[in-house]
Amino acid sequence: MSLHSFFLFKSLHFSLLIIIIMIGFTSPSISAQGPPSPGYYPSSRFGSIGFDQGFRNLWGPQHQRLDRGSLTIWLDKSAGSGFKSLRPYQSGYFSASIKLQPGYTAGVDTSFYLSNNEAHPGNHDEIDIEFLGTTPGKPYTLQTNVFVRGSGDGNVIGREMKFHLWFDPTQNFHNYAILWTPSEIIFLVDDVPIRRYPRKSDATYPLRPMWVYGSIWDASPWATENGKYKADYQYAPFVGRYTNFRLSGCTSGGSCNPPSVSPSGAGGLSRQQNSAMAWVQRNHMVYDYCSDPKRDHTHTPEC
């Protein structure tokens, strides 16, 4: 190798090294790592049950299949499907392991939530975990929401906080949970707290008994990029899979101590849990109603 060729080779090698280092700094490596450990895993404290032990079909029975306690529901052009707990709860820890469908799922809403909409139509409370479908190459949006005495008819005050997850929710089952007590609501993903909604006043907090629901349905008018992309039934059926249900709550009319997701057994979160939640909100939260300048925050004094 001539001296000129040697220096040309070394120059190219150095340039390539610089490019690799720059790519390393600019790639989303934090997202690939996932959140820091919350240090405590409350789902292990609650036993799982089969679907029939805690739920029943609510609608779309022809779009629902049970297999050894696990549930598959799907949406096609004719209908979706939904299910409901056998009893209402006054508070508790509620979770399911869920696996979502890959590919084109725009307009599709796959959900797990608490509500009393049948007991209080037009004036109900609700605590939502919703997976908003997407188009290929874009992530699902996990939407959390809290309704207080509203129906979603335009008069309701939504309290949405949305996330893009740090993993692909179509590849495996992941545990999604809601803790609801008289003092706080906490949303968790694989035992990592992602949102805490404390009770600051009775007017902004759901206090009436609720049932636990799940469903898959066509929410095309708003679900994907504010309705830009609709459900396309050439990709149907759209499937949601649920397993490892956990219902650990105080039933309506009963007397018990609400569960906790904190290692102390009291309310709130530990320092390590708060740190994990802050990481998620810093790196994966894509919408917070309290930070939306278009919202009238006189209706959301908790902000």
Describe the protein in words.
The chain has 303 residues and is an alpha+beta fold. Helix content is 16%, strand content 35%. The strands form two sheets. It has an eight-stranded antiparallel β-sheet with strand order 1-4-13-6-7-8-9-15. It has a seven-stranded antiparallel β-sheet with strand order 2-3-14-5-10-11-12. The longest helix is centred in the N-terminal third of the chain and has 24 residues, at 3-26. The radius of gyration is 22 Å and the shape is globular.
Helix and strand topology:
Elements (H helix, E strand, L loop, with lengths): L2 H24 L2 H5 L17 H4 E5 L4 E4 L2 E6 L5 E5 L3 E11 L8 E8 L8 E9 L8 E10 L10 E3 L10 E7 L3 E6 L2 E7 L12 E8 L19 E14 L19 H14 E4 L15
Antiparallel strand pairs: 1-4, 2-3, 3-14, 4-13, 5-10, 5-14, 6-7, 6-13, 7-8, 8-9, 9-15, 10-11, 11-12
